[in-house]
């Protein structure tokens, strides 16, 4: 290595170091360069489209369970019973935000737009059970009991009407109450009578979500066609 | 040399550069056999982050798989989303509206900038200069702010949909992007002054792990790793897709400016220059974005025709390819993802023979691998 | 010196005349040592705080700012935390050596505080072999580091320890040779003598830095070599965080780790203090003849000036750390033996020739004599 190269090396080292040090000095001295946001005194306001925690307005929800079907990780569980007016009544609606991946597919697909993202992102909890959000506040058994009563009343009224008609016109075949089951889940395996799903998780046991029972979110017949199909996914148990 | 070795017997050391290591860019395990400081054999051991994504793909629908592609390469999430969308659209022959394609290109190039920023930042941090990493993160936060405006998330975006994008651009998005570009462009010469041409940095990287062009092609390297070895091959130019034919940009190639062609420094400079080119592309795309719909008509229950297709996109880390076999149902029959980082690791063992332990870190950093992509 | 201090104490406080002189001397030694050690530890703690603040400023963020006003008590919080941590000694480690190593490193670093000339009369012990003593005692650090690396029973630690040993030992040579010009000019190894030899010329131009171009170069060479001695970036290969995950002190936790950490900052101070004393005029106050002042004022001013210069050099070390990347170990060794050693040797030759030719007069002296 010649002398010129040797000295050139030394000079280059010094010069590039000095150039770099000038830049860091500017940052070190200029207070405007500090960009720290001192949380929690200063909070970052999320944007309008921010995908925070989910929120379902159960007054608008029609229990169509599109959200359940489209969720890639099966974190939504929905249970509904058919009411006296043939419409579905929401019994329980749970989202496991610990499992949710905040992809937004459920919000996109919700027909009545009851499911939305909030701008919340702070929910540190001490047990995983607390990460399951329940949106129906009334007890499931009470709802079912109420709906069953309404259905029974409606059935009784229909019977009475039928009676009245048969006294007028005898040979008519009874067309009334086809004995609609108050709860469609009879078709499926487990009748979700008692037991809201919560206790399984309140103990903080993550494995309580029985994946085995839960069918994959998409069925071969995944048409949106049957909104009245009540959810069969493990009978209201969330994963 | 042999006589010397006989006179002084040495023993090889087996060191585990374990899954928990500050410099392995994720959970990569490298099993090193060294003779003192010189590496005799460095074998990568991958699989710590395997999540069976390809198997999940067989269980979910095409639309439901989109958020999983986010997690394939989380630093280039938009690019992976778009690659999946383009693949399925190629299979099903869906025509995407032009505005959606422009938006896709804009977000892909923004994501390329933020991915290269992380590559640059973490590479210099591995080399010992911790400051540029913070500057890179600061720039990246501004990109994340843009992405938060557009889709609501700051890392795993799930913005692209099959047939377009999920929502139109929000208010003033294009202006804000232009502001960001104006802010970012002078930062690149600042990084060059601070660290890129610093004598110590150059000395660390020049002539280390030089890969010739022929070798790079033989081992399947793609993206900046390939271009760093002097091969001018960029999918956006050689096999253009989307609206790239309408955009004018240069393909950055390593020239061996501080050492041999294809050494670590070349790969590093290619990434820095690519950021500059992305800025150029973005300016053109912003100017050319037309009005119109952002989503094509895709049936809610989407069943593409049976068949198979392979599509490849130019991701920041290389060529991300998706090979998709469909049997006409709502779920894919089989999908295979060609992850660029996985293929890049093939050359790792060969190229690290005879290097020092400190160079291993330089090589991993210059390849810019990311583990979720390798392990899927 | 302690003895004379003891004698003057007896004169001042007659009540102590009953106490034998040797007890008093011993007591004084202990007190002075305690004072110096307290200062050193306090400095080391605050230096960690300043380092983090400087790092934050350079990196566009705020450093610690929650514990105490502007985060000043952060080092206390860190210290208490380290004290309360579990003391983990690896299973197959050599327990005795593992426990001994931090002490050796600590001693090697803090024992050098004894000969640092803080002020006109403020020096714990003005050894007539001052410079030699500092060089010798800081070599104890090598032993400590090697023991730490070996006894950890960890290959990464071993690598780090070996690298550190090679590095420190190699850089001792240019450090020694770069300090020698100052010794030659002063004609003595005692640090107070070296500082006193830089008196005059408005208190600034008497500095050895301006004595002749060779000593000017010597200062920078010394500073660079000393940076390598203290294992600071760009020479922090032994503790390269991103490669060896802390190198030789990877297995240490709690207060044992604190010793290594404090020793590093102590070393920084010692090295900067040596540079100040030998090249930057030590405690000479600019535009003031500090030796002519009454003792207390003289000590105060000189202490302030000395600390200002030394801490300025320490700040420079921190600034360099956050700018530059790290050298690879073979490049480091190459730089020591192929660049620093020849340059410092050439410098030493130059200074010797200069002193011979110009009879020990520096450039400021020659300019002053021109003007009469």
Low-confidence stretches of chain C: none
Largest sheet, spatial ordering of strands of chain A:
2-3-5
Low-pLDDT residue intervals, each spanning 5 or more residues of chain A: 172-239
Report the principal-axis shape of chain A: rod-shaped
Rounded Rg of chain C: 22 Å
Range of helix content of chain A:
25-40%
What would you call the shape of chain C? Answer: globular
Distance between the termini of chain C: 39 Å
Per DSSP, the total helix count of chain A is 5
H/E element string of chain A? HEHEEHEEHH
Give a quick account of the main beta sheet of chain C: strands, pairing sense, barrel closure: none
Q: Which range does the strand content of chain C fall in?
A: under 5%
Proportion of residues in helical segments of chain C: 55-70%
Number of helices of chain C: 13
Q: Overall mean pLDDT score of chain A?
A: 72
Strand/helix succession of chain C: HHHHHHHHHHHHH
Count the E strands of chain A.
5
Task: Report the C-alpha radius of gyration of chain A, rounded.
Answer: 30 Å
Strand content of chain A: 5-15%
Give the integer mean of the pLDDT values of chain C: 85
Structural class of chain A: alpha+beta
Could you walk me through the main structural features you see in this protein, from its secondary elements to its overall organization?
The complex is a heterotrimer of chains A (239), B (376) and C (372). With 239 residues, chain A is α+β, with helices and mostly antiparallel strands. Chain A has helices at 3-29, 66-70, 105-109, 140-168, 198-202, and strands spanning 54-56, 76-82, 88-96, 115-117, 132-134. In chain A, a hairpin with a 5-residue loop joins strand 2 and strand 3 (88-96). A three-stranded antiparallel β-sheet of chain B has the order 1-2-3. A three-stranded antiparallel β-sheet of chain B has the order 6-7-8. The model of chain B is unreliable at 1-5 (pLDDT under 50). The longest helix of chain B is centred in the N-terminal third of the chain and has 29 residues, at 98-126. In chain B, a hairpin with a 2-residue loop joins strand 4 and strand 5 (164-165). The N and C termini of chain B lie far apart (45 Å). Chain B contains 17 helices and eight strands. Helices cover 65% and strands 0% of the residues of chain C. The longest helix of chain C has 38 residues, at 21-58. With 372 residues, chain C is mostly helical. The two termini of chain C are 39 Å apart. The model of chain C has no long low-confidence stretch (mean pLDDT 85). The A-B interface holds A 9, 12-13, 16-17, 19-20, 23-24, 27, 35, 46-51, 70-72, 101-105, 108, 117, 216-218, 220, 222-224 and B 59-61, 63-68, 70, 131, 138, 141, 145, 148-153, 156, 158, 166-167, 170, 190, 193-195, 197-200, 300-301, 329-331.
């Amino acid at each position: 290595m010649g002398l010129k190269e040797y000295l050139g090396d030394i000079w280059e080292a010094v010069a590039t170091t000095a150039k770099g040090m000038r830049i860091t000095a500017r940052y070190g001295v200029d207070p405007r360069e500090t960009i720290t946001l001192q949380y929690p005194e200063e909070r970052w306001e999320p944007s309008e489209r921010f995908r925070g925690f989910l929120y379902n307005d159960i007054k608008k929800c029609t229990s169509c369970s599109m959200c359940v079907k489209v969720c890639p990780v099966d974190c939504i569980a929905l249970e509904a019973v058919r009411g006296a007016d043939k419409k579905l009544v929401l019994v329980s609606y749970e989202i496991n935000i610990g499992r949710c991946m905040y992809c937004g597919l459920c919000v996109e697909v919700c027909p009545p737009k009851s499911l939305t993202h909030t701008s919340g992102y702070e929910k540190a909890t001490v047990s995983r059970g607390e990460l399951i959000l329940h949106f129906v506040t009334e007890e499931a058994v009470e709802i079912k009991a109420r709906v069953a009563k309404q259905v029974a009343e409606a059935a009784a009224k229909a019977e009475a009407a039928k009676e009245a008609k048969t006294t007028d016109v005898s040979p008519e075949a009874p067309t009334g109450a086809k004995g609609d089951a108050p709860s469609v889940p009879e078709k499926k395996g487990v009748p979700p009578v008692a037991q809201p799903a919560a206790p399984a998780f309140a103990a903080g046991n993550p494995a309580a979500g029985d994946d085995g029972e839960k069918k994959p979110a998409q069925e071969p017949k995944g048409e949106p066609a049957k909104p009245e199909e009540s959810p069969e996914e493990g009978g209201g148990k969330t994963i | 040399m042999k006589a010397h070795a006989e006179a002084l017997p040495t023993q090889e050391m087996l060191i585990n550069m374990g899954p928990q290591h500050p410099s392995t860019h994720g959970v990569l395990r490298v099993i090193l056999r060294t003779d003192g400081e010189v590496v005799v054999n460095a074998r990568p051991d991958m699989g710590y982050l395997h999540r069976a994504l390809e198997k999940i793909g067989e269980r979910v629908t095409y639309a439901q798989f989109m958020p999983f592609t986010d997690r394939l390469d989380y630093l280039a999430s938009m690019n992976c989303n778009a690659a999946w969308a383009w693949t399925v659209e190629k299979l099903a022959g869906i025509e995407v509206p032009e505005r959606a394609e422009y938006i896709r290109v804009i977000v892909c190039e923004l994501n390329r900038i933020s991915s290269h920023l992380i590559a640059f930042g973490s590479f210099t941090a591995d080399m010992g200069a911790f400051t540029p990493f913070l500057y890179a993160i600061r720039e990246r936060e501004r990109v994340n702010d843009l992405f938060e405006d557009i889709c609501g998330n700051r890392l795993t975006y799930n913005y692209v949909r099959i047939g377009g994008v999920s929502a139109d651009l929000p208010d003033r998005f294009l202006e804000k992007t232009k502001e960001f570009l104006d802010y970012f462009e002078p930062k690149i010469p600042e990084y060059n002054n601070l660290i890129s041409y610093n004598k110590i940095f150059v000395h660390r990287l020049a002539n280390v792990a030089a890969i010739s062009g022929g070798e790079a092609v033989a081992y399947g390297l793609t993206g900046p790793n390939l271009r760093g070895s002097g091969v001018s091959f960029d999918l956006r130019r050689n096999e253009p897709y989307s609206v790239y034919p309408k955009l004018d940009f240069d393909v950055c190639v390593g020239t061996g400016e501080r050492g041999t062609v294809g050494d670590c420094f070349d790969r590093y400079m290619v990434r820095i220059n690519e950021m500059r080119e992305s800025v150029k592309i973005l300016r053109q795309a912003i100017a050319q974005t037309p009005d119109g719909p952002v989503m094509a008509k895709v049936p809610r229950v989407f069943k593409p025709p049976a068949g198979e297709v392979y599509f490849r996109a130019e991701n920041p880390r290389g060529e991300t390819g998706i090979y998709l076999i469909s049997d006409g149902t709502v779920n894919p029959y089989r999908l295979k993802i060609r992850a660029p980082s996985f293929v890049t690791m093939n050359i790792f063992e060969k190229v690290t023979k005879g290097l020092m332990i400190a160079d291993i870190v330089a090589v991993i950093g210059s390849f810019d691998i990311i583990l979720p992509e390798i392990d899927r | 010196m302690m003895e004379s201090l003891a004698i003057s104490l007896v004169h001042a406080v007659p009540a102590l005349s009953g106490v034998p002189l040797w007890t008093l001397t011993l007591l004084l030694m202990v007190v002075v040592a305690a004072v110096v050690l307290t200062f050193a530890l306090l400095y080391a703690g605050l230096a960690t705080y300043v380092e983090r603040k400087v790092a934050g400023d350079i990196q566009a963020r705020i450093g610690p700012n929650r514990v105490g006003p502007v985060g000043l008590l952060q080092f206390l919080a860190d210290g208490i935390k380290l004290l309360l941590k579990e003391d983990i000694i690896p299973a197959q480690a050599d327990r005795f050596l593992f426990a001994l190593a931090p002490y050796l490193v600590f001693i090697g670093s803090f024992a050098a505080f004894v000969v640092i000339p803080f002020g006109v009369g403020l020096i714990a012990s003005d050894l007539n072999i001052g410079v030699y003593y500092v060089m010798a005692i800081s070599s104890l650090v090598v032993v400590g580091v090697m023991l730490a690396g070996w006894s950890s029973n960890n290959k990464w630690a071993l690598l780090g320890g070996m690298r550190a040993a090679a590095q420190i030992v190699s850089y001792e040579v240019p450090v020694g040779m770069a300090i020698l010009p100052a010794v030659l000019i002063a004609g003595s190894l005692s640090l107070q003598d070296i500082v006193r030899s830089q008196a005059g010329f408005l208190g600034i131009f008497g500095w050895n830095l301006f004595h002749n171009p060779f000593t000017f170069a010597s200062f920078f060479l010394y500073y660079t070599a000393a940076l390598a001695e203290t294992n600071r970036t760009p020479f922090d290969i032994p503790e390269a965080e991103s490669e060896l995950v802390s190198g030789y002190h990877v297995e240490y936790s709690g207060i044992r780790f604190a010793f290594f950490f404090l020793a590093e900052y102590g070393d920084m101070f010692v090295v900067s203090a040596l540079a100040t004393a030998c090249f930057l005029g030590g405690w000479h106050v600019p535009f003031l003849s500090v030796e002519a002042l009454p003792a207390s004022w003289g000590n105060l001013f000189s202490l302030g000036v000395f600390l200002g210069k030394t801490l300025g050099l320490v700040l420079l070390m921190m600034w360099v750390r956050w700018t530059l990347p790290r050298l690879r170990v073979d490049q480091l060794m190459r730089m020591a033996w192929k660049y620093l050693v020849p340059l410092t040797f050439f410098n030493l030759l130059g200074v010797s020739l200069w002193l011979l030719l110009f009879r020990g007069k520096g450039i400021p002296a020659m300019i002053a004599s021109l003007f009469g």
